[in-house]
């Protein structure tokens, strides 16, 4: 099939590359000339495991192309996927300016039937707005072409997006019941047929329900994380090991183990903005989502917990102290620093007078960029970007772990002890066992791990 993808961010680039991998002829459009030039020269603007190989293979095969030519993009695909950003607006609602601009551009150029597929995460009712924007352009041109607007939200995890796309646990598609909607349903059914050979993974529904499903899924996952983080904070107070609790409740099949890990807060481009957008949608309809308001508040507070453990150990004034920080991205296998917990920790340590040495396997360049925006030059000057995890430790008073990269899970603890001034670890992701740390002679501060172990 001929498919157009509008937007080459995480969702658009992964979607386009993976659909090309299935044999489709994919045209990826982006108005960012630098990004398109990078992609046409073999580069990748994001870090996502496996994506570079998929893009290269399909570019070479002629099934994947990148361009800034709007007219050519609209002419190419009967299916037009809108996969542009929907950043949070000032009031927390999703900013739809890029989605609606994409719809208008389609309307300015289309001459025959098209299916416009909202792949971006958008609030309930967006399909109607897309339809109105597109129809207005057609009316202005006097073109009688028909179209349908469908919803096909993505459920991709950063760091595992290619695998998630190629082996989906579910495919959600919303179509309307008009004749055009039935045509859209058949085209989408054909497109996703390769994923349904063993068993049906597609869930068909109306467009509004599909739009809502995406927000509901992310809100539920965020709720589980904040719930466990709140319990972990209580566990520290009452002498309980939250890991034992996690195993105990996760064994209940009604609960399960996923997204029950205590830590120093969630971040990224999805959970924070989707929770806020769903809250904003509810307020627009005269309803307060009290649970989600609490989820957001708990997460904001959780990002301060690791810094609080540092000041509880060393005092409020950290002038003259030096700390090593492992992990900067909001999660492993990505360089995404949006809403990353490390940004909150670094700001607090620096504002209290400390200096830091930081290391992340992938996100160092992105960290330099975002921290330059976060911090005053005087604070930024007290950050050293280390060449390796062990290099970051040299002369530090303690180590703080913020991102659970696999490379941090089995370090040489004797080297850690030798390089630190004191053998102290603040583990924001509970990578290690307190008993093992005590045996190794390391003072260990986890999240909800009950007893403080000292050398």
UniProtKB/TrEMBL annotation:
Which EC number applies?
1.1.1.22
Q: Where is the UDP-glucose/GDP-mannose dehydrogenase C-terminal domain?
A: 324-434
Source taxon at top rank: Bacteria
> Sorted alphabetically, which InterPro entries does this protein's record hold?
6-PGluconate_DH-like_C_sf, NAD(P)-bd_dom_sf, UDP-Glc/GDP-Man, UDP-Glc/GDP-Man_DH_C, UDP-Glc/GDP-Man_DH_C_sf, UDP-Glc/GDP-Man_DH_dimer, UDP-Glc/GDP-Man_DH_N, UDPglc_DH_bac
Q: What sort of enzyme, by top EC class, is this?
A: oxidoreductase
Q: In which pathway does it act?
A: Nucleotide-sugar biosynthesis; UDP-alpha-D-glucuronate biosynthesis; UDP-alpha-D-glucuronate from UDP-alpha-D-glucose: step 1/1
Q: Does the keyword Hydrolase apply?
A: no
Reactions catalysed, semicolon-separated, are: UDP-alpha-D-glucose + 2 NAD(+) + H2O = UDP-alpha-D-glucuronate + 2 NADH + 3 H(+)
Q: Which UniProt keywords apply?
A: NAD, Oxidoreductase
A Pfam family this protein belongs to? UDPG_MGDP_dh_N
Q: Which SUPFAM superfamilies match?
A: 6-phosphogluconate dehydrogenase C-terminal domain-like, NAD(P)-binding Rossmann-fold domains, UDP-glucose/GDP-mannose dehydrogenase C-terminal domain
Gene3D superfamilies attached to this UniProt entry: Cytochrome c1, transmembrane anchor, C-terminal, NAD(P)-binding Rossmann-like Domain
Chain ranges passing through the membrane: none
Q: Which family does it belong to?
A: Belongs to the UDP-glucose/GDP-mannose dehydrogenase family.
| The protein's name | UDP-glucose 6-dehydrogenase
Organism per entry: Janthinobacterium fluminis
Source taxonomy: Bacteria, Pseudomonadati, Pseudomonadota, Betaproteobacteria, Burkholderiales
């Amino acid at each position: 099939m001929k498919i157009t993808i509008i937007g080459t961010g995480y969702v658009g680039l992964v979607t386009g590359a993976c659909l090309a991998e299935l044999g489709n002829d994919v045209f990826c459009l982006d108005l960012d000339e630098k990004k398109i030039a990078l992609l046409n020269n073999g580069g990748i603007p994001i870090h996502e495991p496996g994506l570079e190989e998929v893009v290269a293979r399909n570019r070479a095969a002629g099934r994947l192309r990148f361009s800034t030519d709007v007219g050519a993009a609209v002419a190419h695909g009967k299916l037009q996927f809108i996969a542009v950003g929907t950043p949070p607006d000032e009031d927390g609602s999703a900013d739809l300016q890029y989605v609606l601009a994409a719809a208008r551009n389609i309307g300015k150029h289309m001459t025959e039937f098209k299916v416009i597929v909202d792949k971006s995460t958008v609030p309930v009712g967006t399909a109607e707005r897309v339809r109105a924007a597109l129809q207005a352009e057609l009316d202005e041109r006097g073109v009688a072409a028909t179209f349908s607007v469908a919803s096909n939200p993505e459920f991709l995890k950063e760091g595992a997006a290619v695998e998630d796309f190629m082996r989906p646990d579910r495919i959600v598609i919303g179509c309307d019941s008009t004749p055009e909607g039935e045509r859209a349903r058949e085209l989408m059914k054909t497109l996703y047929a390769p994923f349904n050979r063993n068993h049906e993974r597609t869930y068909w529904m109306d467009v509004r329900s599909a739009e809502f499903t995406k927000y509901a899924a992310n809100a539920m996952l965020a709720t589980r994380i904040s719930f466990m983080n709140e319990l972990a904070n209580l566990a520290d107070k009452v002498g309980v090991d939250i890991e034992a609790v996690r195993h105990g409740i996760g064994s209940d099949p009604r609960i399960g183990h996923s997204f029950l890990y205590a830590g120093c807060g969630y971040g990224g481009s999805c959970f924070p903005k989707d929770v806020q957008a769903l809250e904003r949608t509810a307020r627009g309809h005269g309803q307060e989502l009290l649970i989600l308001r609490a989820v957001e508040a708990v997460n904001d507070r959780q990002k301060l917990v690791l810094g609080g453990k540092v000041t509880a150990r060393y005092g409020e004034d950290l002038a003259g102290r030096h700390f090593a920080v492992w992990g900067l991205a909001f999660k492993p296998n990505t360089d995404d620093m949006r809403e990353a917990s490390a940004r909150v920790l670094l700001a607090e340590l620096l504002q209290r007078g400390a200096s830091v040495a930081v290391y992340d396997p992938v996100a160092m360049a992105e960290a330099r960029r975002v921290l330059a925006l976060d911090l005053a030059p005087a604070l930024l000057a007290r950050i050293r970007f280390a060449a390796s995890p062990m290099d970051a430790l040299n002369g530090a008073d303690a180590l703080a772990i913020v991102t659970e990269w696999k490379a941090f899970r089995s370090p040489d603890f004797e080297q850690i002890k030798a390089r630190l001034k004191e053998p102290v670890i603040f583990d924001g992701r509970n990578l290690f066992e307190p008993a093992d740390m005590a045996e190794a002679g390391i003072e260990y501060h986890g999240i909800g791990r009950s007893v403080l172990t000292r050398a």
